[in-house]
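no rush on this but wanted to send it before i forget. theres a chain ive been looking at and ive put its sequence and its fold in C-alpha cell form underneath. i want to understand how the C-alpha cells follow from the sequence so walk me through it. thanks a lot i owe you, the record is right below:
>
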Amino acid sequence: MNLEPSFAYIVTNKPRGTLYLGVTADLVRRVSEHKQVAGRSFTARYNLDKLVWFEVFGEIERAIQRETSLKRRSREWKIKLIEMGNPGWRDLFEDIPPPSFSAEA
C-alpha cells in the first residue's frame, strides 16, 4: 500500500472545452508534461494544458478509483464539479501542494 500523495485531475484547453481526466503520483511533473506536449497524444491534439480540478489522495488506488468514478459521470456533471471549486476555470498549476504535503489516507 503506497501512502505517498496521489492525485486525480482534470485538464482542459478552455472553459467548458475538451476535458481530460488522469491520475498521477507527481502532479507537477504530469501537468508540466501536458503543458509541453508535442506529438500525437490526445492532450497534444486538443492543447489540454490548463489544470482546472484536482483532488489529493493518500493512496494511488484511491485516486484510480476516483478517476474511474468520474469517467462514468456525464460531461455536465464534471463541469459542475469543476465550477463548484473553480468557477472561473483558472489554471490551478500554481496551487499544487508542495512535495512535502501529506495527504490523509
